[in-house]
């Protein structure tokens, strides 16, 4: 608590109590008339630390939060705080504490909020914990032409939103935890009771709109006139009763009414039980440069030539199993396409529809079998990831003609038989390749990897790990990650004699998850004449080093979660230390021991 004699600091100008657990203000705060900054005022239950003490603090600037408004007796006490006379307050928070959702006198609490009306120069308004069904008329009145942000939270009994649509400068609006609200209608856009205010386009400056945790919300109606001309982002989360056949027309009317639709960046729908069959964004009428994601839509949504704008740059579909990505003759300007655990109906993806695609990322697409192209080459593609697609089997029959591809990942694709054909000629710029968990690749007679590779990840299956001669000689490889098979690994000594290919440029070698590995073969590692960094992770049983010593070129040995070997290194065990003492830096569990 603050000192009882705070009122004696009559020249105090700044008091910031953010982050404290103060339960009420000390008595006599009204005497601090020179205060310019007061982050929070916590209303007490006595007259000496009630709302009237705020009345004389007319020099307050910036942000003011008033908490525990449940301690205010009535509207007259609220008026005594003279909030409307505090012309220099930019941001105002009005907060009732969490607790009983019901109020014994709803009209009294409404009167309290009515008499906490701020000056019209206010820029940010936040109201939290208000427990009455309706709001006073001043909230949303067009005379507040400087307000740019409004947040209404935990107004659990509210069933009618205030008329915020006439705030001319409002850019950001957040509405959260309205437990009783069922419908948003015309009252949201214009207060019919404002007889002396001229009607304006609803939400003329709004850019960001958010609804969260509104379990009873079922209907959303737009006004007849155009609204949201500068709209950029919409977020809906935790609104289980709001149906897709209501949301989609609203989205379309919001977007189509925008005078500058190129500003639209994001439409994000989460946890929405939608019964709708199509979400349409008409490319002939709309240009969106960054439509980012559709998240957790449980029912069927079709995305086809009439749904996606032709000028779309980036599309991410995440955890939407029922979305249908329809591939037709139309070509798109997509630069980035990401499909993650979605589109169960997708069995083949044609690259021909996306001639400008630079990044294609597909993860967990359970029925994808192939990627095709009939119009090679695809010169724009630089990054291609197809991971955890259990049924993926093949690339284009004539090879993957993507001459500027620098990164390719086909990890955990258990049915993939081979890498793309003619990689040496068709993928001249490929530098990074990840094939972990795709065991059939190393069995293929065409398994030779392009010699220009610089980074390679293999493993998660014993076929890839035990003998690496299938890789061929990779003269330019500088980084190699080899991942064991975890608890299933039967490898006890590694790398086996003669198992490493010729890797004259290898600088970094990482060994991960060899759970049953007991012995590290130093002599085989001596063949890596350029090796500088050896990183061994999660090899719990590793305790021995056989052979002469680790490569003399090593500058760093790093052990993480290798308990036995790590302890021997820290204690400079004779049998281990003689093989590693020449290494300038040794780290165990991220701590340097040498």
Automatic annotation (TrEMBL):
Q: Where does the signal sequence lie?
A: none
Query: What Pfam families does this protein map onto?
Result: LRR_R13L1-DRL21
Which spans of this chain does the record mark as coiled coil? none
Query: Taking every annotated instance into account, which residue ranges of this chain make up the domain R13L1/DRL21-like LRR repeat region?
Result: 51-177
Q: What is this protein called?
A: R13L1/DRL21-like LRR repeat region domain-containing protein
């Amino acid at each position: 608590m603050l000192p009882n004699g705070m009122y004696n600091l009559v020249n105090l100008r700044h008091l910031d109590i953010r982050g404290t657990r103060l339960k009420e203000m000390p008595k006599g705060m009204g005497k601090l008339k020179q205060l310019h900054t007061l982050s929070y005022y916590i209303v007490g239950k006595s007259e000496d630390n009630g709302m009237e003490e705020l009345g004389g603090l007319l020099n307050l600037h910036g942000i003011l939060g008033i908490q525990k408004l449940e301690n205010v007796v009535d509207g007259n006490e609220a008026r005594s705080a003279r909030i409307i006379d505090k012309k220099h307050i930019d941001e105002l928070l009005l907060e009732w504490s969490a607790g009983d959702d019901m109020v014994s006198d709803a009209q009294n609490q409404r009167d309290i909020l009515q008499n906490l009306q701020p000056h019209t120069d206010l820029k940010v308004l936040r109201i939290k914990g208000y427990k009455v069904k309706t709001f006073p008329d001043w909230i949303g009145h067009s005379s507040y032409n400087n307000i740019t942000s409004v947040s209404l939270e935990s107004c659990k009994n509210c069933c009618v939103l205030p008329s915020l649509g006439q705030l001319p400068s409002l850019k950001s609006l957040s509405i959260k935890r309205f437990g009783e609200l069922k419908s948003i209608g015309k009252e949201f856009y214009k207060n019919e009771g404002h007889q002396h205010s001229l009607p304006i386009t609803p939400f003329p400056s709004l850019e960001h709109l958010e609804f969260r945790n509104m379990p009873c919300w079922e209907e959303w109606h737009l006004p007849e006139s155009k609204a949201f001309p500068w709209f950029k982002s919409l977020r809906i989360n935790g609104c289980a009763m709001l149906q897709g056949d209501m949301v989609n027309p609203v989205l379309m009317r919001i977007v189509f009414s925008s005078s500058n639709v190129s500003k639209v960046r994001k439409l994000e729908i989460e946890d929405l039980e939608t019964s709708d069959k199509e979400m349409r964004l008409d490319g002939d009428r709309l240009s969106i440069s960054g439509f980012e994601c559709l998240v957790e839509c449980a029912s069927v949504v079709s995305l086809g030539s009439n749904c996606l704008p032709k000028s779309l740059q980036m599309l991410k579909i995440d955890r939407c199993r029922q979305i249908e990505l329809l591939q037709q003759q139309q070509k798109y300007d997509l630069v980035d396409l990401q499909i993650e655990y979605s589109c169960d109906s997708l069995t083949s993806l044609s690259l021909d529809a996306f001639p400008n695609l630079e990044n294609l990322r597909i993860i967990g697409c359970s029925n994808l079998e192939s990627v095709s192209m009939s119009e090679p080459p695809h010169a724009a593609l630089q990054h291609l990831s197809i991971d955890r697609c259990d049924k993926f089997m093949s690339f284009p029959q004539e090879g993957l003609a993507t001459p500027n591809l620098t990164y390719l990942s086909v990890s955990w694709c258990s049915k993939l038989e081979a890498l793309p054909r003619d990689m040496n000629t068709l993928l001249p710029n490929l530098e990074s390749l990840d094939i972990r968990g795709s065991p059939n690749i190393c069995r293929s007679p065409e398994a030779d990897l392009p010699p220009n590779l610089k980074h390679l990840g293999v493993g998660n299956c014993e076929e890839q790990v035990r003998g690496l001669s299938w890789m061929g000689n990779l003269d330019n490889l500088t980084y190699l990650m080899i991942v064991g098979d975890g608890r299933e690994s039967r490898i006890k000594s590694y790398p086996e004699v003669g198992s490493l290919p010729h890797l004259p440029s290898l600088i970094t070698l990482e060994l991960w998850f060899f759970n049953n590995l007991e012995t590290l073969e130093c002599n085989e590692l001596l063949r890596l004449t350029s090796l500088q960094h050896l990183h061994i992770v999660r090899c719990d049983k590793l305790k021995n080093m056989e052979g002469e010593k680790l490569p003399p070129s090593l500058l760093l040995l790093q052990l993480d979660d290798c308990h036995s070997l790590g302890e021997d290194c820290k204690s400079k065990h004779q049998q281990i230390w003689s093989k590693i003492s020449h290494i300038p830096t040794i780290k165990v569990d991220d701590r340097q021991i040498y």
